[in-house]
Give the backbone structure.
Amino acid sequence: MTRDDEGSALIEVTWLAILLLVPLVYVLVSVFDVQRGAFGVTAASRSAGRAFAIADTESAGRRDARAAAELALRDQGMEPGRMELDIACSMGAGHCLDPGSVITVVVRAQVVLPLVPAALGGGAPSFRVESQHVVPRGLYQERGR
């Protein structure tokens, strides 16, 4: 007696493809999400630094920097509610917009991995992405009229 094996190779290849492609696609989607987060915080720190540097006052600069960073993150499809924005100056608070000051902007965010339920323990797995941008203020600036 011989066994009829006709068609079983197709079934085996189909199952093997499913078992190998699903994890591969998940890894690629996760890598792309983390890369999108990295692009987002880079654009956010650069935009926030520029917005702060051209502001008239430090309080307006902080407000404009936050708005610019949130917009840059939304551009990349990220939720800006999880963003941390730190602004530091080489000359100290109150002198950030003085000529010769160096403004350092740091943006941090969490990128949550897709399709992983929080029920697997301790919240959904995520990556922390961070970017720093340095903006020097020029020594020679136009005075208000």
The radius of gyration is 24 Å. Residues 94 and 130 are 26 Å apart (CA to CA).
